[in-house]
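User: Show me a protein chain along with its predicted structure.
Assistant: Here is one chain, sequence first, then structure tokens.
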Amino acid sequence: MALDKAKIVDELSNATVIEIADLVKELESKWGVTAAAPVAVAAAAAAAAAPAAAKDTFDVILTGVQADKKIAVIKAVREVKAGLGLAEAKALVEGAPKPILEGANKADSDAAKKKLEEAGGKVEVK
């Protein structure tokens, strides 16, 4: 028995939504399946995949400074954050925890963290 797909498509094209819904219910009953299950599974899979997206912006936060390394950290802050004056850099260091960079890319945030830690700062990247 050959299945005439074109004929089935034509029949369904001429049917009302209510008729098609009744057909779906009959098929579900006869075959012991549900048409809603694949949709729920696909939605759950999509929701599970969403958190896997990579983060592309980072905040570099100076959380603390070794007391004997304060001057070196101030210099490092000025290198990391271009255009910052000495007074502003000192205020940032003394007011830790403070954000040094916000919305930086991965490479810039890693470089800033390395530079600040080498100078004696304690850094978090979020």
